[in-house]
Amino acid sequence: MNDESQKEKLRQHFARRVTTQARVVLDTWQKIHEDRDKAAAHRNEFAAAADKLVRYAQRFEMDSHARAGQTTLELINQWEPGSALDDSLERRLQDAIETLSQSTLRRTDLNSSESPHQFRRTPVYIALANQEMASRLIRQLEFFGFRASAFANADELTEACALHKPETILVDVNFGGSANAGITTIEHLQERHDTPIPIIFMSDEDGSIETRLQASRCGGEEFFYPAVDPGQLIEKIETYTHGNTVEPYKVLVLDDSRAQAKYMETVLKKAGMTAHIITDPMQIIHALEEFSPEIIILDMYMPGCTGMEIARVIRQQDRFHSVPIIYLSAEEDVSKQLHAMSLGGDDFLTKPIDPKHLIATIHNRGRRARSLLALMIRDSLTGLFNHTHTLHLLDQEIVRARQKDQSLCFAMIDIDYFKKVNDTFGHPIGDRVLRSLSMFLKQRLRKTDHIGRYGGEEFAIILPNTRPSDARNVLNEIRERFSELQQPAGDREFNVTFSCGIAAWNDDTSQALCERADRALYSSKELGRNCVTVADS
User: pLDDT for 312-332, tens place per residue?
Assistant: First the structure.
């Protein structure tokens, strides 16, 4: 290797370090942007990341990164440590971050007129021999809000993982040129991390059981043979990223012993669960309504009533008919335990309680309860709320908006010419379009918003504490971005648009609100589709 090529390799190495640090700054801003209540806690981390970026960029003479980092750092210094981030400063920081994100774009992106993407906190790494496929995947992933990077060789991938552990890696089993070289690379990578990285393997040539076993043993969650199109891969990548966030279980504990109740609360909170403790069985109805638990723990014997009697009262309410109930007691008679469970209980733990046993039981019961609940309230194709549950949520949000005197919007979306998509490309591709829109909406709307599949190609969105103008702006931006997304269909690609109608709650019923949104949607269709219409108040 001559001196010039060595210098070029060093330059590329330093450029990657600066770009990686720039993305750390972007990731930290994303944390602040996603949860304003905890913004102050990330302020010092944000400042340290920006300062490091400036020093790296100046050292390696990357002027655009240095300028953007310096501007960001100066603005952070105007943010008083421990205080909330005010709106004016947030807007200026957002402008600086967008300038920085433009600096991190690859050369192939610099001619793009698109606004910078808001990336997820953790990257997705692509290690494929087929660079055209890798580039195509990255474009698609970035549309869905992921930050994705492709690597040309094992050394680059290893270096990137050392700097920033990815959320998942998509890798060809032969990445590197030789048979199963990709699997060998992943084996070495996994040894460097305390917790395994979810891996999606793909192969055009080898689907043997020996290769599949080797891939599975080093963290392979999926194995595609023969290779599949980008649409299917993105759905799987989404499973190991967006789906990783698990809400803590909500556990209601009824125990007449205050000391035992506090002990249970400490154990549950230490395990990351949300606990609500009551010591008076006569408060059970109020606690159920206020807390809406996912799991209930009952002491078997209490003054005035038994846990079995309380369980029967709970089971008389349809809403809590399938919520797991776990009994606690010093009772060791198996026949009495079985009798207790026949009266509404699901499990029985004997005092003194082993914390590990308790947590394991709650996790097992909780996972199953959530799975059963999802089957009842979610659409099986998209994972969104079904029609019935969406209307139930709308009723709840109307009650909340009335109590808190807040605004509320309801939107209906309909995919344009969806029948033509099914007729032209087939129903499996049509189903993938529905799933891609559901992913798009989930990743661009707030956690407090509710998204449902209303039926067929229709979607419904509930936007609490949102004014009509804000709802229109958000959904219009989503509409524009979704219309740019290339939908894969074998060797072909096509675009899909949607129409939208929005209605603001005006102290009317949920039925009236739905009807106004539906009429606004119809107006969008009459205006030529691919637009957003807000209903008159």
Answer: 889 888 888 888 999 887 767
265 and 192 within one domain: no
Give the model confidence (pLDDT) of 19-44 as tens digits: 778 878 887 887 786 666 677 888 88
Query: Could you write out the DSSP letters of every residue in 196-258?
Result: PPPEEEE-SS---HHHHHHHHHTTEEEEESS---HHHHHHHHHHTTGGG--PPPEEEEE-S-H
Strands, sheet with 498-504, edge to edge from the N-terminal-most edge strand: 450-455, 458-464, 408-415, 498-504, 532-534
Question: 457 catalytic, yes or no?
Answer: yes
Q: Which of 457, 477, 480, 484 is catalytic?
A: 457
- What is the extent of the structural domain holding 44? 3-104
What is the pTM for the complete model shown? 0.59
CATH code where residue 301 lies: 3.40.50.2300
Residues 416 and 292 in one domain: no
Q: Where are the beta strands (DSSP E) in 293-407?
A: 295-299, 301-302, 305-306, 325-329, 347-350
Query: At a CB cut-off of 8 Å and minimum separation 6, what does 97 contact?
Result: 25, 26, 29, 72, 116
Instruction: Provide the CATH number for the domain around residue 81.
Output: 1.20.120
Same domain, 412 and 526: yes
Asked whether residue 377 is assigned to any structural domain, the reply reads no
